[in-house]
Design brief:
Radius of gyration: 21 Å
CATH class of the largest domain: Alpha Beta
Bound molecules: pyridoxal-5'-phosphate
Order of helices and strands: EHEHEHEHEHEEHEEHHEEHEHEH
Largest sheet: 7 strands, mixed
Number of strands: 13
Distance between the termini: 57 Å
CATH architecture of the largest domain: 3-Layer(aba) Sandwich
Number of domains: 2
């Protein structure tokens, strides 16, 4: 429990690492390595650290189909690398990143490995010891839990050596008039009344997912994504983004119909997809798209729903081909 800090979500968790570890360890001329597929939550905190510390933000190139290779990461590492921050799974492309290998490379350079697991924790079993990452963050609301709660995992020795970012009740040890001392992790990062209701809700969500089995969840949604892609490829003018090997999501564009129009017409048929830049503007530019639509699957989705999506997409195409 000393390595699990309850936060407001992935964003807050990564901001804690950036504001504390990042601000303490990154110096002028140092380097922070990220990739082009990061969600803004795992990008802007590092931009801020780099800006304030006059450090350099380096971007790992993606392969043509949107994968991060170990070689591409290695090409960006140097003895000035202090932090490697990377999504475990891309929320846009469904790419699964080689975290374990990257963590090994980061450590060889004396850097720490920060993992944004917002899109992996809900869908697959994660073993932080096996990955050997230093920090890992996820949110409850993406895994059947409530909003307003998430987790920052960090290695105990690192957490206890870091300065707290919020101060107040619960996190103190001795309070003097001018100076105070702070409790060890997790308390030093949980100032104020803890997120009690959120943690109880997250715990129930984890029990629920464990009962179903995360392996079953993962297999089910991967099957749905492959089933969807096989049919979507037959729709003329539809572009699917991302690699073949992916988790349970399909990001696409339907010819030159704007993603928001696709989403609106699908919505009228009771089908919810997400449209926009998906909080990943650098990735959108890399894809050469201003926005995309994304169908994502979870344990409750069915093949019949995928069929409805495909029918809906065909109707959407028809609808816009008549000059609406
Ligand atoms: C990959 C990824 N990282 C981070 C986040 C941010 O999560 P939250 O808004 O719960 O802090 C998201 C949310 O969409 C995400 O998909």
């Amino acid at each position: 429990h000393e390595e699990i800090i309850f936060t407001r979500g992935t964003t807050t968790a990564i901001n804690i690492v950036a504001s504390s570890y990042g601000m303490e360890h990154v110096e002028e001329g140092d380097e922070i390595v990220v990739t082009y597929l990061e969600h803004h939550a795992n990008l802007i905190p590092w931009q801020q650290v780099a800006k304030r510390k006059k450090a350099k933000l380096k971007y790992v190139d993606l392969t043509a189909d949107g994968r991060v290779t170990v070689e591409a990461v290695e090409a960006q590492l140097s003895d000035r690398t202090k932090i490697v921050a990377m999504a475990h799974v891309s929320n846009v492309l469904g790419t699964i990143n080689p975290i374990k290998e990257v963590a090994r490379l980061a450590h060889a350079r004396g850097a720490v490995m920060v993992v944004d697991a917002a899109q992996s924790a809900p869908h697959q079993r994660i073993d932080v010891t096996d990955l050997d990452c230093d920090f890992l963050a996820f949110s409850a609301h993406k895994m059947c839990g409530p909003t307003g709660v998430g987790v920052l995992y960090g290695k105990k020795a690192l957490l206890n050596a870091m300065e707290p970012v919020e101060f107040g009740g619960e996190m103190i040890d001795y309070v003097g008039l001018e100076e105070s001392t702070f409790k060890p992790s997790p308390y030093r990062f949980e100032a104020g009344t803890p997120i009690i209701a959120g943690a109880v809700g997250l715990s129930a969500a984890i029990d629920f997912l464990e009962e179903i089995g995360l392996e079953n969840v993962e297999a089910h949604e991967r099957e749905l994504a492959q089933y969807a892609m096989a049919q979507m490829r037959d729709i003329d003018g539809l572009t699917i983004y991302g690699p073949e090997e992916r988790v349970g999501l399909v990001t696409f564009n339907l010819g030159d119909v704007h993603a928001h129009d696709v989403a609106t017409v699908l919505d009228m048929q009771g089908i919810a997809v997400r449209a926009g830049h998906h909080c990943a503007q650098p990735l959108m530019r890399w894809l050469g798209a201003s926005s995309t639509a994304r169908a994502s699957f979870y344990l409750y989705n069915t093949k019949e729903e995928v069929d409805a999506l495909v029918t809906g997409l065909r109707q959407t195409k028809e609808y816009f081909s008549h000059g609406f």
